[in-house]
Amino acid sequence: MATSLAKNLPLSGIRVLEFAGLAPAPFAGMILADFGANVFRVDRAGETSTLDSLSRGKRSISLNLKSKKGVDVIRRLSSNTDILLEPYRPGVMEKFGLGPEALCGVNERLVYTRLNGFGSKGSHSNRAGHDINFLAMSGVLSMLGRKGMNPFPPINLLGDFAGGSMVAVLGILLALFERTLSGKGQVVEASITEGAAYVSSFLQRSQDIGIWFGDRGENVLDSGAPFYETYETKDGRYMAVGAIETKFYQQFVKGLEMDDILADQFNLEQWPSMKQLIAKRFKTKTQAEWVAIFENVDACVTPVLTLDEAHIHQHNVENKTYMKNLKGGFEPCPAPMLSRTPGISKHRRDPCMGEHTVEILTEEGFSATEIDDLLAGSHAEQYIPKSSL
C-alpha cells in the first residue's frame, strides 16, 4: 500500500483525490505523495495509457465519469477526502455534478483545489493554453530572451511547475493549516497565469533598483551582462558565470587571467566587446580545465552539467539530491529536506491506470457485490497485468 512508507511524515493521514491530467496537477499530487499523503489518481475508464510521468507513489482508480454510478463513487470517496485536485477548465467538474458546491456541501473539511491555466474567471478562463501562453499573459515572457531575439520560455518550468504546481501546493498547505483553526476546508483557485505573475514579483518590484536599464537581453540578469552568462568551452561544453558582485567579478577575471583588461565591470558600452573577449578566452580550455581553475575560487563559476552528470557530481551525491529509480536511472529526491520528517527518498513506481481500483474501493468500504456491479457495468475498471509467459 502507498501508505506503508508514509508513517510519521508531514502529510501522513492526508487523503488526496487527484483527477488525472498532465504536468502541473500530477506534479502537485506527487509532491503531496512524496511527503506522506495517500494520493488516489482518478483515471478515466476506457483509457489504457497516459503521458503522465509524475505519479510516483500514487495509486490509480479508473472510473467512468459519464456514468451516474461512477460519479457516485467520487462523491462517496470525497466524503472522506482531505484534498481534491482537479486540472480542468471551468465548468467541467460542474457538468459531472462534482463541483465545489456539491462536494464541499457533503464534506465541509474538503480542500477543493482547481489548477488550470487562466483561472475560473475572466475573458480567457475557458480558452485553451499552455505554459507559453500563460507566461505571455502574465507579462513574464516579455522579459525572457536575448537581445534582438524573440522572447522564449524556459521550457515549461516557470509556468506549469513554478506558477502552477508549486503555487497550488502552497495554497493547499495554507488551507490545511487554516483548517486546523476553523475546522473547515475551502476552495483553492490556482491559476497558472496568476501563479506565474506572483512568482515574478521580483521582476515587477525591482524595476527601480538599477539592474533594469535596457531592453530585453541588455540587463544584468537577462544575458546582457558579460558576468552573468554561459560560455562555450574548447570541447563544446559550457560554463555558467554569475559573478555579479564586485568581489566575485574580481576573482572571475583573475581566474581568466584577464583582470587587467576587464577591470571596468559596469561599463555598459563595453559589455558586448567584453563578452566577445571572455567567450574567446573560454574556448581556449576544456570544461574540465576551467572547473579545475575555478574549483576553489569564490567567483560564482560552475560547469553546466547534463542531467546524466548531475546525479554523480560530488556535491549532489553528498546531499543525496537524486535517487535511483527502477529503470536504472536517477530522479530528484523530494525537496526541501526536513530534519525530522523528510520526504520519501525511495523510488516508487508510477501506477498503471486502474491498477488499484478494487483495492481502493475495498478500503473505502464498498462491498464485494458493489464492486462487482461497478466493474460489470463499466462504471469502473480494474487493470489486469498481462502475463509475461
Keywords:
389 residues, alpha/beta, seven-stranded mixed β-sheet, three-stranded antiparallel β-sheet, 35% helix, elongated
How would you describe this structure to a colleague?
- With 389 residues, the chain is of the alpha/beta class.
- The protein is built from 15 helices and twelve strands.
- It has helices at 24-34, 68-78, 92-95, 100-106, 131-138, 157-182, 192-199, 201-205, 246-256, 271-282, 287-294, 307-310, 314-318, 357-363, 368-376; strands at 15-19, 38-44, 59-63, 83-86, 111-116, 187-191, 228-232, 238-242, 301-303, 322-324, 330-332, 380-381.
- It has a seven-stranded mixed β-sheet with strand order 6-5-4-1-2-3-12, with helices on both faces. The chain has a three-stranded antiparallel β-sheet with strand order 7-8-9, covered by helices on one side. Strands 10-11 form a two-stranded antiparallel ribbon.
- Helix 5 (131-138) crosses helix 6 and helix 5 (131-138) crosses helix 7 (192-199).
What is the fold's blueprint, element by element?
Elements: E1 15-19, H1 24-34, E2 38-44, E3 59-63, H2 68-78, E4 83-86, H3 92-95, H4 100-106, E5 111-116, H5 131-138, H6 157-182, E6 187-191, H7 192-199, H8 201-205, E7 228-232, E8 238-242, H9 246-256, H10 271-282, H11 287-294, E9 301-303, H12 307-310, H13 314-318, E10 322-324, E11 330-332, H14 357-363, H15 368-376, E12 380-381
Parallel strand pairs: 1-2, 1-4, 2-3, 4-5, 5-6
Antiparallel strand pairs: 3-12, 7-8, 8-9, 10-11
Helix pairs in contact: 1-6, 5-6, 5-7, 6-7
DSSP helical segment count: 15
Mean pLDDT metric:
94
**Secondary-structure element order, as H and E?**
EHEEHEHHEHHEHHEEHHHEHHEEHHE
Q: How many β-strands, per DSSP?
A: 12
Q: Label the overall shape.
A: elongated
Going by helix content, strand content and strand pairing, the class is alpha/beta
Strand order of the largest sheet: 6-5-4-1-2-3-12
CA distance, first residue to last residue: 26 Å
Biggest sheet: strands, sense, closure? 7 strands, mixed
Poorly predicted sequence stretches spanning 5 or more consecutive residues = none
Beta-strand fraction estimate: 5-15%
Specify Rg, calculated over alpha carbons: 25 Å
Helix content: 25-40%
